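Example (one chain per record):
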Amino acid sequence: MQDSDSALLGPDVSSTMRAECPPSSGALPGQLLPNAAARPIPPVNSNCFVCGRHNPTGLHLKFEGGSHGVEATWIPNDASESFQDTVHGGLITSVLDEAMSKAIMANGWQAFTVCISARFHSRISPGERLRAQGWIVERRKRRILTEASLINDSGIERAHARATFLMPGGSQVRKAHA
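Predicted structure:
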């Protein structure tokens, strides 16, 4: 971690980063988005690899949601492969991380990932249509516990992640879309 990161996140970031990610709540969010409550969650950075509209090599995912969670559709292409017919686990984790981050932003908060754990239930192939869902499990002061899932069209969870995010400390605290 760079010194500028410690200054932004505050003095207790080191102990937070050493802490293990929280155990999974074990629950899937189900139907996160009643049609009337869904709203677009715009990118904070238009060059974001996962959701940025101006990143020429990005995934360009469009998240919608509200205070209960967010979701986006992702269809990985052949450029997403690691092994033949297998989407790279780092890309899968990036999409899950972004879903959790967007759930935080949907609540008007800004926070940074300090710990993430992903579990891959089965191979994900290029061309498979997936729904990325992210939600908040709990907020304790500056620490936010989150989870996310990638679910296929049959409703089967293909990957799951949980993460701890930390809100900036001191004078750095601000709303995501202020």
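Caption: Residues 1-19 have pLDDT under 50 and may be disordered.
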